[in-house]
């Protein structure tokens, strides 16, 4: 499926993640520090947005950034420059990165699989481009357990949330999606944030090994 950039909402989300990114990052950092530990010198990131994860790469390393949403690009470039990371920015989708088979050691993403139209297609693309032994490291927000107040809220807010955040769904079982993604081994742990964005607080982090 092709990605439709919405210039107005794209600009809104670029500004939103730029403004609130540091606050969100304080909550997410403990989990990212675990799964993004020891990243290799070249990393592919799917949907990097305005560059929330650039600081987890060592200065001098290379980031192949697959980001179809052009309004994110200026801030992403600035973030890479600030952290001394070489940026190879590709205006493509996570479903069709254009990278060769078995080409990369490490793919990362955060808050991506909630937004893409077809998480299974993205995970198949991750598997395709990872070398055997390579890793996919992720932090994502997921559906709360059925019947909980958070789950009810996720359901109730699905339309305005999805519209505002360009297709984002708080109702996905992404642990099951990654486990079903054909990886050799998957480590995934649930965690809960304590942000005012209640529907976003139920999360997972993990590493899938190709
Ligand atoms: C919720 S934002 C998260 C951004 C960033 N990863 C972060 O953690 O702050 C989702 C990002 O995924 C991107 N995105 C949406 N659909 C995509 C697709 N099909 N392929 C690649 N990126 C996509 C959006 O443009 C946006 O930058």
How would you characterize this protein structure?
By secondary structure, this protein is an alpha/beta fold. It is built from six helices and seven strands, in the order H-E-E-H-E-E-H-E-H-H-H-E-E. It has one domain (7-209): Rossmann fold. The chain has helices at 7-35, 73-82, 119-129, 149-156, 158-164, 174-179; strands at 42-46, 62-66, 86-90, 104-110, 130-141, 185-192, 202-209. The mean pLDDT is 96. Bound molecules: S-adenosylmethionine. Residues 3, 17, 46-49, 52, 66-69, 72, 93-95, 110-112, 115-116, 168 line the site of S-adenosylmethionine. The site of S-adenosylmethionine (SAM) has 21 residues, from loops.
Number of domains: 1
At the third CATH level, what is the topology name?
A: Rossmann fold
CATH superfamily: Vaccinia Virus protein VP39
Which bin fits the share of residues in helices? 25-40%
Features of this protein?
globular; alpha/beta; 210 residues; Rossmann fold; binds S-adenosylmethionine
